[in-house]
Amino acid sequence: xxxxxxVSNLLNEAxxxxxxxxxxxxxxxxxxxxxxxxxxxxxxxxxxxxTLTTTVSF
Length: 58
Prior knowledge:
There is one protein chain. The protein is rod-shaped. The mean pLDDT is about 90. About 0% of the residues lie in helices and about 60% in strands. A two-stranded antiparallel sheet has the order 1-4. The protein is mostly beta strands.
């Protein structure tokens, strides 16, 4: 018998992960050619979770 115990996100971090940016007008003024990089796509880190697996060989 084999037991496997896994913990995901052991330290229970709860922050956003940004994976892309978009360009937006500075101050919302679309007549100004200046642009600012702003986070566009993001994901939350999966909360802490536990998995216990049992394997029986015979």
